[in-house]
Structures are given as C-alpha cells and as structure tokens.
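Second attempt. The first submission of MoxR family ATPase had a stray character pasted in from the spreadsheet, which I only caught after the job came back as garbage. Lesson logged: always re-copy from the clean sequence file. Corrected sequence (347 aa) follows.
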Amino acid sequence: MTTYDERANLSELSATAGEVLRCVESVIEGKPEVVRLSLTVLLAEGHLLIEDVPGVGKTMLAKALAASVDCSVRRIQFTPDLLPSDITGVSVYDQQRKDFEFKPGAVFAQVVIGDEINRASPKTQSALLESMEERQVTIDGQTYELPDPFMVVATQNPVEMEGTYPLPEAQRDRFMARVSIGYPSPAAELEMLDVHGSTSPLQDLRPVAHAHDVVKLIETVRGVHVSDAVRRYAVELVAATRAHPELRLGASPRATLHLVRAAKAAAALAGREFALPDDIQTLAAPVLAHRLLPTAQAQLNRRTAEQVVTEIVQRVPVPAVGRTPAAPGMPPAPYGQPPQHGGTRGY
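This time the job returned cleanly.
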C-alpha cells in the first residue's frame, strides 16, 4: 500500500522533473523523447551516450542538462593526444612538502561532459571505466571518491567518420543508454533559427534544481516497486539477445540491471510507484542496442542492433500487469508501443 510520504515524494519528483524537462526543451527544439530519456538516465544513476552526426545538438543537449541542475560541471574535449591523467588526475611531487600531492582531473565533477569521446585513443577512453562503474578513481594505490550525484554525458560521432576510434565493449557497457538526436523537423529548425540566431539559449538558462534535490529524487526512484513478473520479463528480453542467431555478443547482466533501473525512473517520471512491462519495452532499444554486436552476415544484410531488439521485444511474451494514469502536471510517457526507429533512437 502506498504511504503518504511515497505519494509526496512522487509529487515532488514530478514537479522538479517537469521543470528540468521544460528547461532543457527550451534549448533542444522538437526532441521531447530525447530530453526525457536523458533525465531518466540521470534519475536512474546511469550514464548517457549521445551518438549522431556533427551539428545536430549533441553537446548542446549535454550542456543544457547540466545547466538545468545547480551542480559542478566539467567538460572534457577528447582529442587523439589526450592522456588518461588529464581525465583522472595525477600525483605531483611538492618540493616544499617533500611529498606527493594529488591534482584532481576533470572527472571530479557531478556532471562530466565528454565531447566526442571516440576521438581519443582506447587507452584514454578506458580511464573512465572505474569512475563510471564504481564512482571512484584510484591513483598510485590511493582511492578517491567522486561526488554525488555523478553522471557522464558523452557525445560521439558515428564510427564511419574520419579520425574516430570505436568504443571498447567494456566502455559501451557502462553507458546505461544511447540516444540519437536526429535531424529536427522543418518547423523546429525554423524556430531554432529565431531562437539561436543571435545568441545562444544556454546564456539565459538558469538552474531549476540543486544537486541535493537530484539526490532526493534518486532516492525516490530507488523506492519504485518492480514486480517479479516485470523482473522476469527484463531477464527474458536480455537472455534472448544472447541466443539470437544474428548477434555474436548479447547483453550483459549489467544491461539487465540498467534496464530495470531505467524502468523504475521512467515509472517515477510517469507518477507511478511501480514499473510496468511497457517501461521495459520502451527502454529496451536505448538500453540494450549499443551493447550488442551483430554477426558479419547480419551486417551484410544491413540488419542493425536496434532492429534485432525490436524483433525480440515483439517476440517475447509480455506479462499482464495493471496500469495507472500519469501524475497530474506531467506529460504521459509514450508507453504501450515498442520503440519505432527512424532518425531518432529515443523513447
């Protein structure tokens, strides 16, 4: 039975999340699904990978999300000559103290924006592995905790672009979701010319939430109930990727955990105290597709990982679970249909 405190927490989450959504959408025109997914990943304690061609607003989305929350933000411009110590930090010998002093790197922030992450070498990319999974950095045998909340929002160009390095499988697996912004509609692009024509909309963006507010919202998301049926459904979807004939690498157990966490955040954003199979369905492609490796034959047949995930979602039986409407004041999440994949991979 839902308590008064739980309802109050969900009401507070809906109000704060609605403000953040409106704030980010004032900068990113015509992409509400992408913005909503970004906020879902933040509340689910995950990391977001934004992949698309240059010039569609990847970095703008990352900056807008960071600017909407009053927290520490650091940006890392990934280049081929970037070193791992530039990210994590380095111990420097202090002549006066006759001892080593740790100089924190750019990863010591609550929101870390990694711009064009696949332009750095795999060695440099791997410097983020420990911080993204364990929220800590180990230098010279000394462990340093990262601030709370902690989120990495990375952008990358498609690997076909010149001067890029494909992300290692371990790196991709640490991103909770991947999203593609896609090209805007003609109406949104016309409005963008009016809004972005003279000044950047980021200049007028003011935080609508504090870091401690986000920590409270994350605690609320953790309390969202996931029934045994929904958990089994998530496990069955992930297990189906491991046995699919068109995939040579399926999703990991970490992917199952990320899928359930994201479903809990999506349920909370919709004003529900429990997750539904619809949440799992809608998030399956953004959470799972970037972790999968199609076989050579599937690539020759131009079959994408997103198409395979959509096929799996349509094939795996859906458990019957009750539904409730979204909370007042929050736009309803686009549940009920498997994700459609055109120019945008969102939900």
